[in-house]
Amino acid sequence: MKLYSAPYAPNPRRVTMFLAEKGVTDVEIVTLDLQAGQHRTDDFRAKSPFSQIPTLELDDGRCLTESRAICTYLESLYAEPNLMGADPFERAEIEMWDRRAELMVTLPMMMWVRHGNPLLAALEKNQSPAIAAANEATAMKMAKWFDAQLATRDFLAGDRLTIVDLTALAGIDFAKMNKWRPDDETPNLKRWRAMMADRPAGKVAP
Amino acid sequence: MKLYSAPYAPNPRRVTMFLAEKGVTDVEIVTLDLQAGQHRTDDFRAKSPFSQIPTLELDDGRCLTESRAICTYLESLYAEPNLMGADPFERAEIEMWDRRAELMVTLPMMMWVRHGNPLLAALEKNQSPAIAAANEATAMKMAKWFDAQLATRDFLAGDRLTIVDLTALAGIDFAKMNKWRPDDETPNLKRWRAMMADRPAGKVAP
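ok -> structure tokens follow
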């Protein structure tokens, strides 16, 4: 299997962190140069119609895009440690938390950076200050909400690391581009970020 | 089990359509009056911290929010007809398509309505014309892309109805509020919409 990825892109990192936490080393990582447009070739669009990375290509040529869908497939191949739920209710509960992390934290962080950071003007051709501001406000509010959740537990969903922590970490680390990181205003999130740094996921390059 | 819902809200409809396609009739539907703020009580927030509907309450009191997570749990209880994938690759592939439908079509349609429709000013207190316009543009572009997909098949993912069709239908029908519906500019989507109208899902009230 091949995983198409790129440096500094938060979505591929969700998958490479997922592989790192499972100790999987036999997936070939193919690094694309986004600045050079390697994701916009006809060849790559045949694998990923929206030029999205990550894209997972199976040995038989079938392809999957969308980080979480790729993780769902990888979880079926590499079951341990379980990161997406061990029974039906837990699978649903982790999916609920993963959506909260993604839609309320990670996606707003990404949109804030994409629309608010001059360095990304080439990738996001219609940068909008209004969209940047709205997403910044959501991201900051939700960072505080998640901080409050972490006051009484170590991980975002349940009592062990799950995909939810990886989803959130990808977004939170991406916000460094806008000079934000968990600090003393979100002390629990700061503690969680430090804990994550010592794990396999935290050692995956951005 | 109880499903907390509300009329005209697209996300609860994803779940009620899912139940309809499975022929499930033993989930109690509890209708909340959003205008009266019944989703903003402390009692309901204990079940759904962001006052979100749909919320599924199990008989033992545990709750799930997030439409897709609720469907994941319901799929485990009511396996047939299968709507979310029958093997690991198919589950991942349907999740990929469901994310495309949700993030590229349904969410933009919803955001376009929420930010662009004066009737929703009470619910969306910070309506933004820029956000409405950006989402309208995405929604219209993606409606054409999905229309092209349907030129060669009947359903959005694979050769049978799946959760993906329900996700897309919820968003597409919600856009009626902004006077948009699939027409001769998207003939395949129009044909798909007509086909959906004759199914159990299409008969679920908005």
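Chain A touches chain B through 28 residues (CB under 8 Å).
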